[in-house]
Amino acid sequence: MASVLIANDQSLQRVGLRMLLTAEPDLTVVGDTASRAEAVRMSAALRPDVVLLGGRHPGTDDIETIRRIAHPPRLTAVPGLNAVPGPAGPVGQPPRILVLTSTGDEGYAYAALRAGAGGFLLEDATPHELTAAVRVVAAGDAVITPELTRALIDTVRHERAPRPGERVVGPDTFTGRERDVLVAVASGWSNAEIAARLSIAPTTVKSHVSHILAKIGARARVQAVAFAYEYGLVRPAA
Q1: 4: buried, middle or exposed (CB in 10 Å: 19+, 13-18, 0-12)?
Q2: Rounded to 5 degrees, what are φ and ψ at 32?
Q3: What CATH number is associated with residue 204?
Q4: CB 3.0 to 4.6 Å from 129: which of 19, 125, 146, 210, for a disulfide?
């Protein structure tokens, strides 16, 4: 059972999202709010698996909200909140964040992912796409819309432009198994699927992903995806 906190400044969207998510047998909504500041407080108090962040005017306030939720100073209960407590996650594990927005701006998407978001989904997604994305993010994997993939690749390539004298990282940097895992990640497989298909333990998959991110100097899984596309390890679908 994955618990979800909804943070959205549009009341009709909050109601609709709550109805949609609570209809799923493996999802539960532990609270909702229209306030970004309240979302930070509630995420610390309720410790949901996923914070679904959306609203009318995405921007710098959202990026700071994402950063504060994804990187809290500590995870302790905050008294005085009128919300139903959800199941407490592991100590030290902050909620994962899925951003639901109307904008396709790759700069905003990339900033959200770098701040700590685990996924980025446009508001015109189908109900099935949304609930599937919540499950993927709750499991610790990343979600990114195909429409943004190419633009994010360009953004990552520009940011990763090597400075004079800097060692260039390429596909040969990885071991054979790391390369297998990188291709699987870029192909959209979850950690569980990678473990099953490569016949390795999920913890080993996580270790390989961590090593891959460290080698390319990345903070987010989506940057590894962009790296794989950039170097032709996988190719965008037509």
Answers
A1: buried
A2: -150, 155
A3: 1.10.10.10
A4: 125
- Show the tokens assigned to 35: 């306030």
For 115-150, the pLDDT digits (tens) are: 888 888 888 889 999 999 999 889 877 787 766 666
Q: Which residue has the higher pLDDT, 238 or 224?
A: 224
152 belongs to a structural domain: no
Percentage of the residues of the chain whose pLDDT score is greater than 70: 75
Give the pLDDT score at 190.
81
pTM of the model: 0.69
